[in-house]
Amino acid sequence: MWETTSPHSIEKPALNKKGKPLYDKNGKPVMVKSWPWLISMSPVDEVGHGKGRQYHEPVKVKLLADGDVRITEHDGDQFKVKQGGSISNLTKGAKLGTKDGIPASSVYEKDDGVEHVYYGRGYVQLTWWSNYAKAGIEIGLGYGLLLDPEQVKQPATAYKIMSYGMRTGKIFANGHSFKKYFTQTKTNYEGARAMVNGSDHAADIAKIARQFEAVLLKAKVITPTQAKAK
């Protein structure tokens, strides 16, 4: 819910101080634009597409004859992704990520790969080409998400990524998984925020989670057999 809440552009009639519509000299309503934050509960793009982040600049992706994939970043650093998911440097001293706003290097310009951008998409805002590569392989899509990052916004795919990452601690979750925060004796919604984005708004999200929990528990169906056993 939190990660898929984003601003949407809407237009509405402008009102005067008395709350009545304003009209222009042609008698048409004056419209004003606003950007309210709306809850979509659907896979979405990251607001700003990662502007200012080191994953904002595009990269070029080339499927090689041996079945591996070559990645060329905007600054010219190159990497190879193997079919099993391992990533190695093709350029000595290559570092993942590029400073946002720098001109494309000559290596990048000459590369014959397909250009893609790996800003946040989906339910948990999957970012970085390396995570797209790992996610596709982990959920059984091979290079599918690396070669076509827009797939991450398909609800079924977005859910698989979110579910798999949170259950295993892999891909985006940085080693954090459900079992660390939820057991038969412990519920730690604040800490569980680390599975997606550190401690960012952890208390706000925990409050929402408890509201969902209360609704779900209240909606639980008790069968006659269960009631008798109690």
How would you explain this protein's 3D organization?
There is one protein chain. The protein has 230 residues and is an alpha+beta fold. It has 2 domains: 49-168, no CATH class; 178-218, no CATH class. The protein has 9 helices and 11 strands. It has helices at 106-110, 129-138, 144-147, 155-168, 178-181, 189-192, 194-197, 202-218, 224-229, and strands at 5-7, 10-13, 31-34, 37-39, 44-45, 59-63, 69-72, 78-81, 87-89, 114-116, 121-122. The strands form 4 sheets. A 5-stranded antiparallel beta sheet has the order 9-8-7-6-10, covered by helices on one side. A two-stranded antiparallel ribbon has the order 1-4. Strands 2-3 form a two-stranded antiparallel sheet. Strand 7 (69-72) and strand 8 form a beta hairpin. 24% of the residues are buried.
Total number of helices = 9
Give the % helix.
25-40%
Q: Approximately how much beta-strand content do the residues carry?
A: 15-25%
C-alpha geometry: flat
Low-confidence segments, given as residue ranges, are: none
How are helices and strands ordered from N to C?
EEEEEEEEEHEEHHHHHHHH
Major sheet summary line: 5 strands, antiparallel
Strand order in the sheet with the most strands? 9-8-7-6-10
The oligomeric state is single chain
Main structural class: alpha+beta
User: How many separate domains make up the residues?
Assistant: 2
- Give the mean pLDDT: 92
Q: Taking Cα atoms only, what radius of gyration do you get, to the nearest Å?
A: 23 Å
Quantity of strands, as a count = 11
Distance between the termini: 35 Å
